[in-house]
Amino acid sequence: MRASLASSIAVTCAAVLALPVSLAAPAAATAPPAVAELPPGPEQLPGSTQSLPLEALDGSERGFGGGTGADPAERGLARRDVRPFSLVGVVWDDPAAALHGSVQVRTRATGGVTWSEWQDVETHNDEHGADPETAEGAARALKGSTAPLWVGDSDGVEIRVRGEEQLPDGLRLELVDPGAEPAGTAPGTRAAAVPAGPTAAEAAASAVNSQLAPYGAGWIPALSKEETEVSFRYFPKAAKAAQAARPPQAAPAKAAPVVAAAAKPYIGPRPKIITRKGWGADEKLREKGFVYTKSIKAAFVHHTATGNNYTCGQAPSVLRGIYRYHVKSSGWRDFGYNFAVDKCGNIYEGRAGGVAKPVLGAHTLGFNTNSMGVAVIGTYSKSNPPAAVLTAVAKLTAWKLGLHGVNPTSTTYLTSGGGNLYKKGTKVKLRTISGHRDGFATECPGARLYGKLATARTSSAKYQGRL
To answer: What is the pTM of this model?
Structure first.
């Protein structure tokens, strides 16, 4: 596998933590440098995608059937050599069409001769995405798509698709190379060339977090609960909402006329969050600008269904692969989830727009408005999530929901934007920390992770100081 970002993040973060970060407002020193006049050429862009049309299978031993001749319900590709890639998925022309059937792939590690066993690709991915009738949800670039699958550094592939009914038109295999780390990484790693200065997109993506970390930081440092409470007052809208949500305190009889101290907010300590800069997001891939919702009333927990065959040092590469697949293959405006968590409990900034702001994501079809999506990297249908995952989800939600005065153990109402469980316009009562399946008929976030959400809710409330 290509060298991970772990060492580069560590170097960046050491420099970040050595700088003073104002809790009140960004210092002048954190202002972004001048934007590069010209974007980098194609040869400087990290990552790539190979898109291969699927063909009718001929009934060979590697197909699903044992007969001869082509089966109209089967498509695929025989073993072939390709340029290096690490993540695979299948897309098709009509985003409203579903692929009812199975998709399996085999891969060969780069430079090797041994092929993997057949691996299943999750075909039900339509429940992830922008709400219908939104600008993103109605974009002409949208494609139908499976979930992406992380297979590691590979240069050979074989695929077979079997439909239980007619397959969608325009089936294509997407092979994603997440790209190397940016220049300036650890010695000996393959690094992509970068322009002399930041592009406008890079400057904007970093500047929206300027109240939390210096410009260009690889991560946003953690704060203690006390430090978080001090910084909280510099988010006036959030502070007002949080104070309004706090139960009123009865005044004591014959109270002396003194100025009451402001009540402490129910907010958890801010966790360390690796920024888009830290995991190597190519800001030129996404659409320009940011889109926001009014508030955050609930968090939806997901799994990426990309498999668990990755190391935590590879997690940034997995994220870059998913990001490219979401934008270049599926046609989304940006990475779909607001945050991601790897199996070691590291938290990553997802969709651009600011980690403390109510960024509109594309994660829970029908319920992206006034919510946030947290994706755990991996597949947790049959595997238990590590304790570090639940701790990270609890810490993240204690902080982010706390910014909006939300109790992690309570319920709220969200209005459906349309889906297979609730019609558009339906007001739905949901837990403030819900699984994806609570808003849509889906297996996500996997039975094992979903069964642990009660633990995450309780821990989140404890971090906020409610329990």
So the answer is: 0.84
